[in-house]
Each structure stands twice: as structure tokens, then as C-alpha cells.
Request: fold
Amino acid sequence: MKSLQISSFEEYKDVYAYSVQNPEGFWGDVAEHFTWKKKWDQVLDWNFTEPQVAWFKGAQLNITENCLDRHLVDRGDDVAILWESNDPDEAFRKITYRELHREVCKFAHVLTQQGAKKGDRICLYMPMVPELTVAVLACARIGAIHSVVFGGFSAQSIADRIQDAACNLVVTADGTMRGNKEIFLKNIMDDALVHCPTVERVIVLERSNSPISMIKGRDVFYGEEMARMEGQGLTDFPAVAMEAEDPLFILYTSGSTGKPKGVVHTCAGYMVFAAYTFQNIFQYKRGQIYFCTADIGWITGHSYIVYGPLASGATNVMFEGIPTFPDAGRFWEIVDKFKVNILYTAPTAIRSLMAYGLDYVKNKDLSSLQVLGSVGEPINEEAWNWFNTHIGKGNCPIVDTWWQTETGGILISPLANITPTKPCFATLPLPGVQPMLVDEKGEEIVGNGVSGNLCIKFPWPGIIRTTYGDHERCRTTYFATYENLYFTSDGCLRDEDGYYRITGRVDDVMNISGHRIGTAEVENAINMHTGVIESAVVAFPHEIKGQGIYAYVILSDHSHQPDQIRKDISATVTRIIGAIARPDKIQFVTGLPKTRSGKIMRRILRKIAEGELSNLGDTSTLLDPNVVDQIKEERL
Ligand code: WT7
Reply:
């Protein structure tokens, strides 16, 4: 069979042209590279009106057979996971594909014995340890739908997500260290579960060994259960046959409203797309060491730590800690220690490490590096240059990968060593991906040297299928703004060479350190503070985070110290959402710029937060134009 990997720019252009002219022929050929229990009857059935998208209709498979079983034949002893603890003195772990297969099978038995079955929703709230990968794959193996919740989210956020999906089982850990701070995962989960009557069982991984309370009849220990399976010889588990379009997972992400939406991805298309993009963008070759610094709690971890690399038989470095512990050289220490060849990270991490200076890079051997990757937000020129010069030593292509939780995998990116790169450009679409720029009215903007709103006009296998429990929300959010197009909510320019550069969100979604947070969510959280009457939140440019959160707050009571109230409001946001949503700046105001119909004019607030005070545009439609002057004067 022809290799899945494109090997020259000429070939890319040919393959791309073919993928547009005959998408079904193209993806049908790609899909031949995977293990199926039953082949498809039809490659693609779709419309963007409902929307309804089905890839590989009629096929049956289990993604874990593609990530595990099929490698046992000739690469069972290859390393699947090289795990590095948060604690630099704790021994690293090495897990082969054979071992991972065994662990996943055992845990599939544990889940089954705890009552889980195909179609159930299982919430995973865990540290970055191999057992998280095991839990993810064990869910997939039994056909349960995993909903991973990032370990930085609050009890309230967990409860919202568990309730929305009506999960009946939870897998968590006692606790985990992040830097020198312990996160008490089980305690936070216990707080969440008070409001989650659907959860019948909680499996608790022993990681930090800090004291926790175990609820009788509900909670069991991961280690004890796994030992029991081992004792009973339950080390193999036949993978459940899944229909191509059965849901594989739900992952919650922020939108323009206050309520996070559960993005649903399905088995076959997601698998094919994650693996195809992984192999082509990073040009992964067997034996190479690949390190993605994301957390499995985000889509990057799902697609490019778990499914893409494992479906490709890759060796993955998995890191539990943070880039700055015990010092800002930790990433480079890990690259040196494991001789990492491919490093996939985020602009916010690069900027924060850049700020610590070159001392932490100087004495590290980074000569193993061959390919660098960036994801999560537009990478600014300074960070790009630093990454290129000081980490890649000018020898490593940087793949600036643009995509979204909803796209399942990377849509626009260079292919390493194949696509000529340009700083800050995501460059060209992957085969099978058909971008289109449109103006406000939805008219296509043709030609080069133009900019507009980025849409995709044809389905790719990793496209979002629905938002869990609310298909109408999926339709209105992504498919209703422009007829027959998937709308990304990103602004984008296409330069003279036809290269794409993503300029950022055009909706009320902020991008804080590469993570999406809706303004409405933060406002709702701030408004829960007793002293707050109303608030409005916008993003402003932030040196490290890319964007920071600027909150304008109207107080009911001015008798307290402003700094104390700021702290209290921040604590409220942390409790309601999580520390990532904490405002960087809180300005107290007496009014907000509203139109006569009561709509807050964020455009004005955004400009003030950005420091653009002179050119605020038309303010004549404001109910009270005077509030703007006051806000300007008291700007932080
Ligand atoms: C939003 C999606 C998909 C992985 C991580 C974020 C922004 C993502 C890039 C990039 C410019 C980027 C977009 C997008 N974004 N990658 N390479 N260049 N912007 O996933 O939380 O779903 O956020 O992140 O604005 O819409 P997400």
C-alpha cells in the first residue's frame, strides 16, 4: 500500500488537488491504512443545513485496536509512553505498546465490573499520568464516551459538565503536584459530586497519597481494582465493535454564551483524521521521540498525545508538571533527557520561558530536535524567532498548526520539511481541507492578498458532529452564520502566495494562554460575588498569555478596600470556573457603555482595555456617552 505520508511539496500539491476533486476517493484510500471490523458502505454522506455529517458509513471498528492491538504484531516492544513526573527526582516510566494494551484491557474490565457499558458517559478528572491515557483508551475499548475535564477546573465547572452529559462514572485521583502546589483532585471532585446524582461509581487513582475520604458503596481504588483483574487473569478484553458514527468522546469548550458546549467527536472519522494529520504534519518516522506539552484535558492532548500518535505507533513523552518547575529549563531538560526529536508546544509557554532568559537553555543539549510545533493562538514574531533560533538552532522547521476543538485535528499547517514556512503563518490547508474567506454578508472573498472570516466549505473527517444534547446549538453556532459553510469564528488573511495567517477570534471568545474562555462565562462568575451589580469582560493584549482578561465591574457597595474586593472577585471566579479565568485587571466603574436597547458595546471596552483611547468609533448610539469618558479616565 502507498505510504500515508507525503514526501515532497510537489506531491503535497498533487495530493491536495486530488483531495478536492475527489474527497471520497482520497479519504477512502487513507482509511485503507486502518484496522476495521467491517469496511464502510459509503465514504461520506453530508449536508451542512441540519448539519448531518457521516464518514465511513456502515463501517465498524474500535479505535483502540488501531492504537494498540495492531501494533502488537511488529512493534509490541516499542515504547508508547515515556512518562516524566512533576518531581524531577522521581524515576521516569517507560510503557511499551504491549504493556499499554494490557493495562487498557484490565481497566476495561474494571470499568465493566463497576457497571459501565457502551454509550455511557464517563468523566475523567485526572493528572497527566499514564493512567489517564489508560482510562481514556479503556473507555473507548468498551464503547463508553469519555468526557475529560482539565485538572484546573473548579468543582462547579466539573459539576456542570457531569450534569450536562449525565455521567454515571468518574475516574479521578487523590491529588497531583503541579510545580510545588498540590491539586486536591478528589476533594474537588467530592464537592462537585454533591450536585451530581447520576454518578454511581468513582474510581480513585492513588497518586499523591494525601488523605482523602472514600464514600462507601461509591468509591473504589484504581490500584486495588487493577490488582484484582491481574489476579483473575483478566488481562485481555475484546474491543467492542463501534459503528463509524458512534460518539467517541465529548469535550467541553467555551463559546459566546455562558454555558460551555459539549463538542462531540465520533469514532471513525476522528481516528482517520487525527492519525493522518499527525503523520503528515510532524512527518513522524518510527523510532522518533515525540513530545507534546499539552494536557490531555484539552483537544490537543486528545488528538496529539493520545489518539494521533498512538494510532501511528509513535513514542510519546508525557509530562505531569509545568514548564517552570523546578526551574524554567524543565522542557529543555526533558528534551535532553529523552533525546526528543519532535517538540509540539504553545506560544504562551515559549513566551513565558523566553522571559526567564537564555541561562536555562544554554547548557542543554537540544541537538536531537528536528521538528518544532506551535498551537493554540497566533504565534507572534518575537516568540517565533526565539523558538527558531534558541531551541531549533535554525535547523528545525516550525509547524504553526491552526485548528479548534471542533475540528478534531489540524486543518491548516505546514508539513515539516515539506511546506516552505513563513513566520506567523499557518501556511496551507491539509489535504481534504477547503478553506474559504468570506465578508460580513457571506460573499466569498477570492484571490490573494485579502482577509476575511475563515470558513470551511467541505467536511473533513474530524469535523464536529453535534453539541451534546443540543444539536440546534451546533447548527446555530457553526452552520447558520453562513449558508452551507462551517464558520470558524476566526479572522484570517491570505497573502500573495495564498498562505493563511490566522488573526484571532471575531466572536466573544477570549484566548488566554491558548485556552478558550467565553466573556459571558467570566461575567457570570464575577456577578456571583455579592458586592457586584454588573460586569463586562473583554480581552486585552498580554505579554505572556497572548490575551489577558480585563473586567469592568459595577459595585453595589463601595465601603471596602478596592484591592480586597479585587481579591475577593478573583477568588470567586477561581471557585466558579478555575484559576485560568481569573481577571488580570479589574476596573471599578459606575456604568457600562450600553446602547438604547441595553446591549453592552464591547467594541468600546475592548479599545479602552487595549489602550486605544482616541479612536473609539461611533458612540452616538449610546444611552449615556458620558460613561465612556469616565471609564477612559480611570483606565488601569
Ligand atoms: C482557537 C481554538 C486546537 C488546539 C488548541 C486550541 C486559536 C489555535 C492557532 C494557531 C492562530 C490559533 C483560534 C481557534 N488558534 N491554533 N496556530 N494560530 N490561532 O483549541 O480551545 O478549541 O481554540 O484557538 O482562534 O479558533 P481551542
In short: The domain at 436-460+467-505 is CATH 2.30.38.10 (Luciferase; domain 3). Residues 97-113 form the longest helix (17 residues). The first strand starts at residue 42 and ends at 47.
